[in-house]
Amino acid sequence: MVNTLNRKKDFTLNINGIKMTGVAYGDSRHPPMLALHGWLDNAASFALLAEQLPNRYLIALDFIGHGKSAHRCATTPYYIWDNVTEVYLAMQQLKLHSVDVIGHSMGASIAMLFAASFPSKVEKLYLIEGIAPLHYDVQQLPALMASAIRKRVRTVPKTPKRYPSVDALIKARMNARFPVSERAAQLLVERGSLEQEGEFIWSNDPALLLPSINRMCPEQIMSFLHTVEAKVHLFLAQEGLLSEQWQLYIQQLQKIQIDTFTGNHHLHMQESGAIAISKAISAAPAG
Known about the structure:
It is a single chain. Helix 2 (80-93) crosses helix 3 (106-117). This protein is an alpha/beta fold. The chain has one domain (4-136, 215-282): Alpha/Beta hydrolase fold, catalytic domain (Rossmann fold), CATH 3.40.50.1820. The protein is built from 9 helices and 10 strands. The strands form 2 sheets. The protein has an 8-stranded mixed sheet with strand order 1-2-4-3-5-6-9-10, with helices on both faces. The mean pLDDT is 93.
């Protein structure tokens, strides 16, 4: 197997005046697949999976505020529908008309919202440990908005935690809530860290940790799920985050296949998970 990591190309896009970065793995002559990472991860989270898909051209984005992409200005919150806009504009600039899309966690939710909004642009939808944004009862929304605004007003922007070395950053990522292998952590750190005065920090925008002002109610989520036309292949982890909401979402999708593999929430960043997912993808024709 050709080492896809030796055939990767970084790229930069201009998304409404903000720098958005990404990395393309493999041979551009192969069928493209757009990859959307999870919250606080970056494009490198798909590196191990790309290695197992030598016959696909995997194009992974760094969402705004993540990886090597720029941050939003301090007065602009991060909303998931802005990520959908990022995907739309990125596809335009990358000249991708209709592709398979794979997303993990937050990226899976963004992929679903995009597929529902632009059915002709998505052939197949591969979702890893995620389906749609969390929903909240409509009666809760005013109180949730008030709570989020108060927290945003009270919260002084956090100074990113500093680490004495790259190795310390790697170990911290390996031992996070959802552990990943040393190799996966190295790849994430390589793409998602900065050196400052001899110490190291994550490059993610600290504002990503603030609560969202706007939430979605069940009716909104269901409307999107009912509109998805693409075939959906959902990959779950035995030690993942399957919830009652996800089970409800699954029932709304018209064409869905589900596989459960050994691993945790970051299934695709574990060697066995990457191999299992790649076999499932390779078994189906592209597009």
